[in-house]
Predict the 3D structure of the following.
Amino acid sequence: MNTSLVLQYAVIALLVAASLWTALRKLAPKTTTRWQAAAAAVLLRPQRGAFAQRMGRFVQPKGATGHCGDGCDTCGTCRPADATVNANASTGTASREQPVTFHPRRK
């Protein structure tokens, strides 16, 4: 097999793996955080070398601190109080945004 072909397959495999990881982080954040914590625990064992421990600290997921700056948004209070009110700068009027809700069709 040609060297450039192997390099091309390696780059494609890396891009597919990164895309898969991004999709998993979006769709299953708790599962991927658990996987990251398990990988970090393996790398952070005391008998591991310095490089492995550095990688373990890099891979270790950041824990939610309960502050609004960590981005967890589990309580729903991280957004500003007036986030639903948009002031129209040209007319000076305020409009309220309402979420769109979809209901199943009646038979």
